[in-house]
Amino acid sequence: MSIERFPDIEVYVKGITSDALLAWLQDTLQATLTPAGKGHWRGEGRGEGGAVIPCMIMEKAADGFTSLSMDSDATPWPRDIDCARALHAALGGEVRCSPGGWLPGEEPECYIRLVNGEESTLLWQ
Asked: Within a domain: residue 4?
């Protein structure tokens, strides 16, 4: 049985600098991002088969969290939680993500929170 691959990846981080995120993206996706405004970076990395992966980092996206999004299904991670786990293992901090897919305009009922090596669910409004 295969895992459903999300069409994009989005995670939220706290306690991780943008410089650390940029370096992690460079290491994992060979991504190059450039400033696109204050606290905002855009660029692209490479995924499976050399596929282009548009990437964006936006500081202070929600409640002091930085948003990291990758607009592609060619990332090394099939789901947000897989990316969140890899990011948390590499950089620590607090990482949050939606447990499943969602449509623009919808708000997920709960999020998965990774902190200090542990996972839990929470309502984040």
From this structure: no
Q: Where are the beta strands (DSSP E) in 31-108?
A: 32-35, 40-46, 52-62, 65-70, 94-97
Backbone angles phi, psi at 16, to 5 degrees: -130, 125
Residue-level pLDDT at 46: 96
How far apart, in whole angstroms, are the C-alpha atoms of residue 118 and residue 19?
A: 24
The answer to whether 83 touches 55, Cβ cutoff 8 Å, is no
Q: Which ranges of the chain would DSSP assign to H, the alpha helix?
A: 18-29, 80-91
Q: Is position 114 within any domain?
A: yes
Q: Give a yes or no: residue 68 inside a domain.
A: yes
The pTM for the full model equals 0.90
Does residue 90 lie in a domain region?
Answer: yes
pLDDT of residue 63: 83
DSSP-assigned beta bridge partners for residue 32: 44
Identify which of 63, 13, 119, 102 has the alpha carbon closest to the alpha carbon of residue 22: 13
Model confidence pLDDT, tens digit, residues 33-73: 999 999 999 999 999 889 999 999 999 988 889 999 999 99
